[in-house]
DNA sequence: AACAGCTTCAACCGCTGTCTT
DNA sequence: GAAGACAGCGGTTGAAGCTGT
């Protein structure tokens, strides 16, 4: 698998986005969609790499982004989901309409992590294998024109960005990030992969380091196998019923079995319920 | 007012997974 | 099956803003 040579070309801009760049990106995606992030900046006339455009759109410009403080309910949800899923921010974000994985990650590290007892904090490990220390980039010309995030937020609240004939605001009225992307663009945006795939194809994996000992030993392969990206739950549900979890066959538990069968109908909601119930299992 | 330390969060980096050729 | 291309993810960074002294 080759690596994407991102931002290798000289002359590509880095750092904070200007309002002009935002507007260009918004306008372009509004009219053309984002079928190909790599080609997008060139076609849109942006001196950015596709990755940067994608990130900017997903984390900031997407119209269904909910800005502002997290509610208590949202924070509780994050805590619960993090307990179940570990640092799978995108999976957690899929349960929180209008919130991005980046935002949730930030909130976790700045607020929620502190709420945990120290012992639990120590148990939190990466869901991935440890990576070698990142090399420091030579020179980054950052923040040359960065506006404060709060200022930006206030500005946006005052002056919602217009996308074509639509105004980027009121995320609460939008659907969750898992389904709203198609609302954001024209009909030629059919294969919008971003959030559709993000949610429907998201593998909900138990934290293979931190939670495994305390919770059910759910095999990662099981999750990725069941939660295939095409939402073919009927097919998957059949597979699901044949799966054993190592020594523990969850489907011998009536509670979980019923949850599991409902998965075929309800998608992520059922997975959430399923996970929630799974955590209750030791008390049964 | 000035400074230092802390907090926040947008953006970057590098890796992995998936799809295509 | 191998390799390339791309999207997506999670970890990390660092400047701006905030707070305390």
From TrEMBL:
Stretches with biased composition (Low complexity): 170-200
CDD domains membership: SANT
PROSITE patterns on file: HTH_MYB, MYB_LIKE
UniProt cross-references to InterPro entries, sorted A to Z: Homeodomain-like_sf, Myb_dom, Myb_TF_plants, SANT/Myb
Stretches with biased composition (Acidic residues): 205-215
SMART domains: SANT
Species this protein is from: Arachis hypogaea (Peanut)
Entry annotated with the keyword Oxidoreductase: no
UniProt GO cellular component terms: nucleus
Domain HTH myb-type: 9-61, 62-116
Listed Basic residues bias regions: 126-136
UniProt-annotated location(s): Nucleus
Statement: the UniProt record of this protein carries the keyword Transport: no
Identification of the protein by name: Uncharacterized protein
Region (Disordered): 110-215
Single annotated GO MF: DNA binding
Main subcellular location: nucleus
Myb-like domain location: 9-61, 62-112
Source species, domain of life: Eukaryota
